[in-house]
Design a protein that fits this description.
The structure is a homodimer of 770-residue chains. Helix content of chain A is 31%, strand content 25%. Chain A is an alpha+beta fold. In chain A, α11 runs antiparallel to α13.
Chain lengths: 770, 770
């Protein structure tokens, strides 16, 4: 855990420049707008270690699979969102010196990420080896309003320098990708051109159809007044831009406004790509900095107006939850079913920008509960559209008859991960795809999606399960052999409780929605049967599996087992591990991790979180007390789930600790890995930990919304907005009472603890806290 | 299974040229002499697919580890015996054409590998695109007498060509290694020089100290008479040699004798490497072809005189066993404790020429029983010398206090394999190292090795086991969690019966040899305690493990379990798998293999083979009948073990089928992989299948040698030589009787079936077959 950022409710602040934490800060200060994003790299040159990264959603490169020992079924390629041409660069040159924070003295260095307005600020005073001192002020924005625009205001004030200062806005197509499997460059530069008022790079992803163009325009001001006529055009093979300068004396300032437009073939015809980018860059300059920023701020204001979570009395938690919501919306806007949310968003190379099951586990309920737009429908359609690929994935593993195995890691639906114990065995991922369809149906109250799209997916997933189970003669029950649960710290186990349990739930829900669709949407049902070749007789086998699934448990202790045989392990607790060996995945050999009792995240508890309505509080308590002390939380998906369950069993302070860990995972770098990028998808979990955890929001029988809030001792109050069944409410919990306000909608039944109330439009329900 | 070679007792014969089987034939026709070896590549140019490979034992390249997903504990390098500069090349040029079997017409193509004399012959008639016809005859020898020499006689007879024929003997240092992880070239060429009477390449392995020099001399004859004075020197950056020609008319022949000497820093000072190679190449030319061949033939004669196995009435089996013994001695001579036997010998790149546990499983008993020299002592010393590295390997995985884990794959003792389920978990390999020490002691009757060297190894291995087990509270027994057995078609299992059982045997034997050494060799014992820090109190924990080890079994069926939970699988038999899906490792995805009941080789049966004296025939029979039908034999280590056990339970024809599979694994290419190289180490298994299988040689209580032979119906007789306790005997079994002849030694007790006899020097024991 490395903590170096200042605590502030709406800002992330770093003071002082430390090259050793540069990669971490580059992750933390990432900027994005859902369509494009970038790490918090310096605009100026920096010749020491740094991970330069700018990414455009939906643009992927097929990196040849790298593997030590090939296994049948491995994919040929690993998809990666390539590092795009760097559109943010600005060199700063004096007469014969160039600003480089690795070489110059840096004083009074401050970065500030304003999360309310989505602007990154940087201020510093720098001194060249020759003693020239400058003050630099930078503002950097990826416009949320016009999502193709990156806007930078770069101001240099001379402290003691007299002479020409040149500012060089450029686009550099000669970029590398650190995690490339074979050190390949990912782009072909189709054209690099600098004209009188703009420059651009037109590039194509190697071996792919995808193209993008980055174009730039700029303005140069001296002491607030435009400087013209002094520019030099720069046009190299892979780099274009301008050098524009002005003479200064101490006290003078030179300001560059750089307008970059990034357009891709995802939204534009390749033949008009250059034209479009140049047009947008030119228009941006015309509209001007202030108006562009105004529009950008407005979008953020709208987001916060309905999504803000207020925590009173705990600035650290408040900062964390702001950071998480901020980063989520920077990564994903939910407008395009072709896009999804990379586990690291646009903040690093790890996981290649691909989609994982994190999306369904964390982001689906977050967006479903916190946003009225059809964001989640797009997330579901993403999977629906990839169903044919999921069927192909299953076929590669020997499954037949339209069985689908959704990929562990993907961009276009094809599996691209290549560890057999995960790729082939971490099959529980299929469950969350089905679960999300059910959640969507429950939360929105609309059954048309499942009838029209969801059922096809459910049938294909149920077919997978029905083929993947086998019948054990010994047990006279169905078993699931050779699986890896969400706890990836055990591999290739038999009868992982969570996998077996969720397999049964998938089958049950499918049968349920088959019934519903057949009855309520006979045409959709007929169409689905025709497309999938589904016959109702298939459900007989499914029902048999439901009835006879083996679920490992220890009846004596009243706990479900992580997997069969778990109790043969030496049952230590995490406390017994020396601090210097944590996180264990950075210190222990893999076999030692596997055979230890320590788990990355508890699968049993995950099942109890997802199917909360199946388990009573005592059962949760027993399992929580058994697994939580053995859980390392070395998965970002772990702490929020555990926090929610701790809240459920009334262990408020434990819930708080875990909440803080979930919420400040990256800000406090619990697992010593933030330099690789942020845990974007799991950020949604911290919001869930408030709503489903502290507020104990649950959907009970007959789709009744229920709250039974608790509040950490440290907090004065917390409040959040939530959507359910077409209504929007605001919930506020203090140490003494709970207020629920129906903001949108006419009427809503709400259960508070064990009493049912009816909320009326615009009215408030106020009740004492239990 | 691809069968295309003619059956002949002493020869491997291929008729007709088929490019599709070229790689397979290159493996089959490999030549070596224990110090160097090479695939059966064409000497002349061949511009289509081929795997050119020449290797020098003990010279290794540290290839950077390639892995998709790094795990703590993985080694940084994978050792590979690099492809040495090609010392066998001879271009054949007409006035403006060059012989290339990929482009020319090939008629009457025949290769023959004479295994009795160790000479490879090739004859063919070829026609150039211009219609020039030549007859080619090639003889190729890697001298067993002077192990630095490769000798080639290359004769070209003109059928219809008139003009100059140039023969170009060369050494080419510009070689590649197909399996190189990152396409790196492995050699730096230090010097490439051609002088008037010799040429050489002096090369150094990149990033290593190892160097070698290949030097060549030659003679050119036309119609049997020397041709001189026409040579052209060739000296390129990485290629040296000569072009030497003669004018011919139809019926004339030109013969090139190429003498290559290959010397390395393994045996020579680097400063004298060039000098030495040139000297040896020159001397070879001086000695001349006939004398060199005579010396070479004599070595083979000596080997066959004591190692030949005769099988009467079954030329296929006879050919197979000759091939196996021949290839074994081509790969390893046992004279240098720094060398070991690569799983593929010098016949391919797979496994990188490294040492695996195959050596101890197959080659140790073979050499121990079939050769009077101290070959096996050198194999044991190889491991003894690598003990410090084995301790380091264990330390990397968190073990302490001098515990050793021998590597799965190594050249210098450092683990170089990088699959977690094997590298970290296939720990049974430790057992066979201990077992070999015991075998050596039993077979030779000498305890000095174990006292002086072996005990240190045994203690280190027992320490490993004692730390690797854990105590299960549930079972109240010791368990071994997270292991992979010899059956690599299950990974990361709990309580693999073989691993648990052999762990116990290791501990027992160690305690036994501690007692023996303490009593009989007190000085050695004291020294060993001092060096290892061993204290006798350590054995208390070992004894507890021996007493309380969990061994999974099914008492109802009377079988031991492959691993805990094995019976939960769907228990099909191999017959149920469609032929086109075999071998399954080339057709099924890995997870499907893992969760199926099908095993690569049966671990339980392996245990019953190694510890045959622990299990009665009925127990073996039950386990054999349970596991054999589920065994795929997709490991070369499998069929011979199963054959021996089938023989033991009297199932002669099953034993025969499995023996044939073991013996002709490569000749008949059962697993469709011979193109990658030969299964050198497991070849020893086919000899064991005769001696320990059909003849049922066992060492009984009080070290009594026992035979209870059976003989396949097809065979008239079989006979073999064997060494035991300082004596050499010959055993001959016919359908009716058994003859045992004491060839060396004064007296030997032998048990035949259940009767004990005393063999006298030079006398024969003859008895009826039961």
């Amino acid at each position: 855990m490395k903590k170096y950022l200042k605590t502030d409710e709406w800002n992330i602040i770093e003071e002082g420049f430390d090259p050793d934490r540069l990669r971490a800060s580059e992750s933390i200060f990432s900027l994005g707008n859902g369509r494009l994003g970038q790490r918090g790299n310096f605009e100026e040159a920096y010749t020491e270690d740094s991970l330069q990264g700018s990414y455009v959603g939906g643009i992927t490169y097929a990196d040849r699979t790298r593997v030590g020992w090939w296994k049948n079924g491995y994919p040929s390629f690993f998809s990666r969102v390539p590092n795009a041409p760097n559109w943010s660069g600005i060199y700063v040159r004096l007469i014969d010196e160039e600003l480089d924070l690795a070489q110059w003295e840096v004083e009074q260095f401050t970065r500030r990420l304003d999360m309310k307005e989505g602007i990154s600020y940087r201020d510093m005073t720098v001194e060249s080896p020759k003693g020239h001192k400058l003050h630099i002020h930078v503002e950097h924005v990826n416009s949320m309003a016009q999502q193709n625009l990156c806007l930078i205001r770069y101001r240099v004030t001379s402290v003691n320098y007299k002479g020409k200062i040149s500012l060089v806005p450029y686009i550099n197509g000669d970029v590398t990708y650190e995690r490339s499997n074979f050190n390949e460059k990912m782009w072909n530069i189709l054209k690099a051109e600098t004209r009188s008022d703009h420059a651009y790079i037109w590039a194509q992803v190697k071996r792919e159809d995808s193209q993008l163009t980055c174009a730039l325009t700029y303005e140069l001001l001296r002491n607030g007044k435009p400087v013209t006529g002094t520019q030099i055009k720069i046009e190299k093979e892979k780099l274009t831009g301008f050098s524009a300068g002005a003479d200064v004396k101490p006290g003078d300032e030179v300001t560059l406004l750089k307008y970059s437009a990034i357009v891709s073939t995802l939204y534009h015809d390749r033949r008009k790509l250059v034209e479009q980018a140049v047009k947008e860059a030119r228009e941006a300059r015309q509209i001007g900095w202030n108006s562009l920023l105004e529009a950008h701020r407005k979008v953020w204001q709208e987001i916060w107006d309905t999504t803000d979570v207020v925590i009173e009395g705990d600035p650290e938690a408040q900062q964390g939850i702001h950071f998480n919501i901020f980063q989520l919306y920077q990564s994903y806007r939910g407008e395009d079913p072709r896009l999804n949310i990379g586990a690291k968003g646009f903040t690093g190379e790890k996981y290649g920008g691909n989609t994982q099951w994190n999306t369904e586990l964390c982001c689906v309920p977050f967006f479903l509960l916190s946003n009225p737009k059809e964001i989640v429908k797009n997330l579901l359609l993403y999977r629906y559209n990839q169903l044919p690929k999921a069927i192909e994935n299953a076929e590669k593993l020997g499954f037949t008859h339209g069985a689908a195995l959704y990929p562990m890691v993907t961009s276009n639906g094809e599996e691209c991960h290549n560890e057999w114990e995960i790729t082939f065995e971490e099959i529980h991922r299929n469950n969350i795809i089905a679960y999300a369809i059910d959640q969507y149906t429950v939360m929105t109250g609309s059954t048309s999606y499942v009838a029209k799209y969801g059922l096809e997916v459910l049938i294909a997933i149920s077919r997978f399960w029905s083929q993947r189970v086998s019948f054990s003669q010994t047990k006279q029950q169905y078993v699931l052999l050779g699986v890896t649960g969400p706890n990836e710290y055990e591999n290739n186990v038999n009868n992982n409780w969570y996998t077996n349990y969720s397999c049964v739930q998938c089958l049950k829900k499918t049968i349920e929605y088959i019934g519903l669709t057949a009855q309520k949407y006979p045409d959709e049902y007929a169409r689905t049967c025709r497309i999938t070749g589904f016959e109702i007789s298939e459900t007989e086998h499914w029902q048999e599996i439901i009835d006879k699934m083996y679920l490992p448990e220890d009846t004596e202790q009243g706990i479900f087992l992580q997997q069969e045989g778990y109790l043969d392990k030496v049952l230590d607790t995490v406390e017994s591990i020396p601090a210097e060996e944590r996180p264990v995945n950075q210190h222990w050999s893999w076999d030692r991790i596997l055979r230890s009792c320590f788990i990355k995240q508890s699968d049993v508890l995950l099942g109890m979180y997802l199917y909360y309505y199946h388990f009573d509080k005592e059962t949760v308590r027993r399992n929580f007390h058994f697994y939580e002390p053995r859980t390392l939380h070395e998965s970002s998906l772990s702490p929020f789930v555990h926090s929610i369950l701790a809240a459920r069993i009334g262990e408020t302070e434990k819930a708080y600790d875990l909440f803080l860990r979930a919420t400040r995972l990256d800000l406090d770098d619990y697992n010593n890995e933030v330099h690789q990028g942020l845990h974007i998808t799991s950020m949604a979990g911290s919001w869930l930990a408030i709503v489903q955890g502290f507020a104990q929001m649950q959907i009970r029988k007959n789709n009744t919304l229920r709250f039974s809030p608790i509040i950490p001792e440290k907090w004065t109050a917390y409040s959040f907005y939530m959507y359910f069944g077409g209504c929007m409410i605001q919930v506020r919990v203090t140490q003494s009472d709970i207020t629920i306000h129906l903001i949108e909608g006419e009427q809503l039944s709400v259960m508070l603890y064990d009493q049912i109330y009816t909320l009326e439009a615009g009215k408030e329900l106020k009740s004492e806290k239990k």
